[in-house]
Amino acid sequence: MRIIMSKQLLQKQADTIRFLAADMVQRANSGHPGAPMGLADIATVLSKHLNINPADEKWINRDRLVFSGGHATGLVYSLLHLWGFDVSINDMKNFRQSGSKTPGHPEYGHTHGIEITTGPLGQGIANAVGFAMAGVYAQNILSKDVINHKVYCLCGDGDLQEGISYEACATAGHLKLDNLVIIYDSNSITIEGDTSIAWSENVKKRFQAIDFEVIEIDGHNFDQIDKALTQAKTATVPVLIIAKTVIAKGAVTLEGSHHSHGAPLGVEEIKQAKIKAGFNPDEEFAVSADVKGAFDKLIVGSTAQNIWFESLSNESKAKIKELQNPDFDSIVYPTFEEGSSVATRDSNHKILNAIAKAVPSFLGGSADLAPSNKTELKDMGDFPNGRNIHFGIKEHAMAAITNAMNLYGLFRVYSATFFVFSDYLKPSARIAALAGIPQHFIWTHDSIGVGEDGPTHQPIEHLSQFRALPNFYTFRPADATENIESWKIALKMKAPTAFVCSRQGLKVLKDEKAYGNVANGGYLLKQRENANITIMASGSEVTLALQTACALENDGIIANVVSVPCFDLLLEQNKEYIEKIICKNTKVYAVEAARALEYYKYADVVFGMDTFGASGPASELFEEFGFTVDKLKEKIVTDFKNSK
Description:
The chain is of the alpha/beta class. Helix 1 (7-28) packs across helix 11 (289-295). The radius of gyration is 28 Å and the shape is elongated. Strands 10-9-11-12-14-13 form a six-stranded parallel sheet, with helices on both faces. 40% of the residues lie in helices and 14% in strands. The longest helix has 22 residues, at 7-28.
């Protein structure tokens, strides 16, 4: 049923948004007024369709609204305030100021009502696809009577020019996500000018080719906007609404100009625009009672949520509670025989399946590499009916999609690829770290052990790159048992984690009882009295370090060995702990088949990689680059004796 709307009040609502956004940017002397002003009409009508409850921003059946153009914060904060979220007029007056609730781009967990941190253009479209995928999967396990919300995404020309948007939307079309509605603010403007200077594709045909329903409207015509949104609710495939708009709509001299994109309009321009719209030109941040009442979602949202909750069966309530509160302590982890050889990608496979067996909310997939990543969940079916997600060769979209799925409120989701291809998803990994999203990244083929595929596939610098990322925890387990202990920690962290796993077999060093300090990121695996050196290592090089320590005894060099499964956690330890595992009286060596420059935080000498590797059998490469007992021993003996 179409929503009956007063055109006069709608116009006043839209103009209120326009001037709140313009006032915010003007006061901050920084920001983007053009997009919020151009989208104000669409946002006003969309508000009538949106099913949300500001009193409970975590209501699982709420509609999700993702602002992919995160720079359009003037629109975001205006709407949050008008809807009834905890964003006040004073918060808007402090737009882009230090310590405010209203930063330059919206941040999840920082501002009430923000569904996800989108950041760079294109991310939000992939996030919306992720929310929609989570919604469809929730429907399949809970029923469409329980989960029937929509996912709306506001995007612009810049979002659609980014490659991640095509990856994500192709996935949405393939899966026929009928709960996804993307509203494209087509104003043909970017920072440099008209989009025609760099872009000429037919967006309608692109989306039709990937199985979207496409609706074209005038983005300033209230009736057309309402009709399109109503039509989208009954679609059987994802919908793209192409809304032709004018940037900075309502401005006097800057309407339609690219100069309104990323700079304040100016005091006089705003005053004249307010006069033109019938507003008081001398009043800033004005919200009349009738406008606030027309937008307010507190009462209607609470009512809708209560009706929904009362309609749930006891079985549905119990299932939702189980999904929202995973019991990670109930996992029965696999066991591995001490002394056996198991690649950590293989032990990881068994661990993933153990987690999935115990935790119904655990699912995930790979970028077309599940057989190599060893990430398939056995006998658990394919998404959207099962728990194995086939992302295709779309690493960047995969990571952004999975970010959103982890914030949906019901699921814990992992993604996987080769470690070297983490380059393709780095922006999404960074957003996960920034927003504290507990996604599990699984990256296999961790070093020159990749072998014959050569330097293009050997991730030499990647460990250093991700260890440098704040609030991101990279685990590189030494063996199958350390892998288990790492997962026990990662599952309970409120931050993204990565598991960097070997292709080649690694000796199982000890049983589970021997691992007590993995949570500290590094620990003494081998301790000797009167040690005069310490060797630090992670992953496959831990066994090398242990073997080299034994070989060094013949030369009178006594070595302690420190395993470093998570360098990021080690950095968080206090001085007393570091001195406990790294004896002051020892010379410290670090060994890793990677760049490993970060080890200079603790080590006197680092034996790492200073080239991109080579193509050849893995065993030959480890020999060539010095990662064998004989060669590592020779390097240490030479250095240690010369340093006396």
